[in-house]
Amino acid sequence: MKLKNIPFLELPPTADFHCHLRQDAMMEFITPLVKEGGCDTIFVMPNLQPPITKVADALAYHEKLSRLAPGVKFLMSLYLHPELTPATIDEAARTKVIHGIKLYPAGVTTNSQDGVLDIEQYYPIFEEMEANDMVLNLHGEMMSSPPAEFAKADGTEAITVLNAEPKFLPHLYKLHAAFPKLRIVLEHVSTREGLEAVRLCGRTVVGTITAHHLWMTVDDWGCGDAFNFCKPVAKTPEDRVALVRAVIEGSGKFFFGSDSAPHPIQSKKGPGNAAAGCFTQPWCTALVIGALEEGIKQGWIKEEDIRQASIEGFLSRYGREFYRLEGTTEQEGPMIRLERKGEKIPPVVRSKDGSIEVVPFGRGKEVMSLSWIW
């Protein structure tokens, strides 16, 4: 497919299987922007304050989001926490609204301070998830200063943001071996090692890839641009190339999860540590297509390697099939259309009353404009 010569591209709506929609005023501002990115299905992260650990709270959150973005299918998740019990998993599975349980190693990213210290502690939960065919969603990073429970599998080598994902992979292998029927997602894969780990595991293990990791390397955030700082951080040029190639490999092992994570501008550039997260939601589909065009330009992939089916698979079909959503084989209803109109991502987006400002990833970058075809 000669992307650069195509004036427009029509696709099924994008399904985003990893998205942060926050709470309160930020939620009210961000959630209606979901469809601007071409998405009609969103898997919602539970790392609010406090984290969503109860079924009733997840259902209440679902109701709020559905009110703000009618016509979008929100898939909810629970935060893996000592409050969860096997009975909680049974209750969640019956809702048909809660589709996954999110594992955050304690302290690795935004609002993960209540996360996991000992994975084996949750084996009864994973057993019940396997029985109920629920998905385990892994934030696959070790902590930079891990407790002994996490350090045992990794010897004495220091853990940094650059090797935190590869250092986590023994836990992925161990979980997959212990629960071979448990569906597991290694979220926001950022390294060649992470991609290969997903490929080496069975069909019940998949990975999501973000739009921003397709565009960045360590230099883009390590040289002072706090708005490019995310967790996991962008890695090497070789990792970026491997991620771009994985998007179009057509194996069904990888699909889209934006990890779009809005933060107020003050928390990204203010004193202290910058908040981790890139906000991509209103341009997420266009950013993926743009990354493929850039891949062709740089010679990482060839035009003939890109097919309509592989783009649709990554952005829409593979994730819906893995989550066993209805209507995954025959896409009916609206489509999205991307056209070249010279649109550029703005330097900032603001709420109507001006009280919230968020700097989007890729500000100033030219992207295809998106519209819906009904």
Automatic annotation (TrEMBL):
The enzyme's E.C. designation: 3.5.2.3
Superkingdom of origin: Eukaryota
Cellular-component GO terms for this entry: cytoplasm
The Amidohydrolase-related domain, residue ranges: 50-190
Pfam families: Amidohydro_2 (PF04909)
Enzyme class: hydrolase
Keyword Disulfide bond: no
Known pathway: Pyrimidine metabolism; UMP biosynthesis via de novo pathway; (S)-dihydroorotate from bicarbonate: step 3/3
Molecular function terms, GO-annotated: dihydroorotase activity; metal ion binding
Biological process, per Gene Ontology: 'de novo' pyrimidine nucleobase biosynthetic process; 'de novo' UMP biosynthetic process
UniProt keyword Zinc, yes or no: yes
Keywords: Hydrolase, Metal-binding, Pyrimidine biosynthesis, Zinc
Similarity comment: family membership: Belongs to the metallo-dependent hydrolases superfamily. DHOase family. Class II DHOase subfamily.
Database matches in PANTHER family: DIHYDROOROTASE
NCBIfam families: pyrC_dimer (TIGR00856)
Protein name listed in UniProt: dihydroorotase
Source species taxonomy: Eukaryota, Fungi, Dikarya, Ascomycota, Pezizomycotina
